[in-house]
User: Fold these one by one.
Assistant:
Number 1:
Amino acid sequence: MYIVFEGIDGAGKSTQIRMLKEWLEANGFRVETLVEPTDSEVGKLIRKILEWPDAQTDDVQRILALLFAADRMLIMDKLEDESKIIISDRSFISSLAYQEPREWVEVLNKYAKKPDLLILLDLDVKKSVGRTSGKDTFENEKFLTGVKANYLKIAENYTHEIIDANNGVNKVSSDIKKAVAPYLGICPDCIQ
Ligand code: TMP
């Protein structure tokens, strides 16, 4: 099963993925986690570019769209392992939500693997800006308001669960477990 976590910056994806992984392993599942951008040379370049002062320009945004798609192709083989649950921190769905124009980004990501389950961590934009460093090009209120709206629309195209990420870490974690459990045949009473 390929589970993808998405959400605007600061939604708590990495903490929640760690907590879900620990819980699934305690329930006997084998789990592998992935992060996009990856730690490949392309991923490292992406992280550098995200901090460029001119990263907001159309040209740089297009470069980023191409690099995100290329970086993703580098981990395609890892997604084929059916012996494990694969949980990914971001996916091509981030590109659909953050990059444009949408039709072009869809073409670039034509071969990207579609998730079996999308967990969308839905966070207020003001909270997002408060939680992030503001260092990356996308961490500003106006931009993230558009991204959040994009996510809610895109989610409709996939099997998805929307989780309120404005709550405390433990409440969010328990909401995620309750949402994921039916897909994996875990008994709801086993969830704390
Ligand atoms: P991170 O904050 O989850 O580490 O991701 C880095 C930034 O990259 C974040 O602002 C979201 C952005 N991003 C895209 O714009 N498109 C993508 O396809 C991916 C994977 C990330």
Number 2:
Amino acid sequence: MRLCFASNNTHKLDEIRPLLPPDTELLSLAAIGCHEELPETQDTLVGNARQKALYVWEHYGVPCFADDTGLEVRALNGEPGVYSARYAGPQRLAADNVAKLLQELQGHADRSAQFRTVVALVLPDGTVHEFAGAVEGTITEAVSGNGGFGYDPIFRPKEGDGRTFAEMTTTEKNQISHRARAVAGLVQFLNEANF
Ligand code: IMP
């Protein structure tokens, strides 16, 4: 099946590609001729994932899926959550987001957090299917590691061995990550539906 992944984030594409069945042809937005920024104006992860996937389906007629992810920090009442990308401002700079989060958490004993991902899939008949995944962990006191992207250098998953996501290989991150768990639901659905 030809499926577009509605994201310009090459890190996400690299994570997702090995998780899909080998007979799935994964198309980037560039590959289908989509070069504009996708609308992402909802105030929930599921709303944004659906909005991005449906935009591609409606404008390009290609079956596709999109993901939306939020980092929910307990001591900050679930922030930055759905606003994770723009936490430190509209430039969406990862280093600034990370710096702001470390600053906001100063003095908090509870540094627990979770990443949550929602994947929305639009099929050729226009129906939308959603899949969720989450991983619990803690926010470190300082950045550590050069891999991954976004908040990875300050997220230490509970199920790991003490390393941050940025200190893991893509394969290691994929064993426990929020996105891999959501994509596992998508893959199961595609297999069962015989796509
Ligand atoms: P979005 O899903 O691309 O909207 O991501 C929201 C924010 O979370 C962005 O700042 C991303 O960099 C960050 N983010 C998304 N997924 C991950 C991840 O797997 N690790 C670390 N940060 C992530």
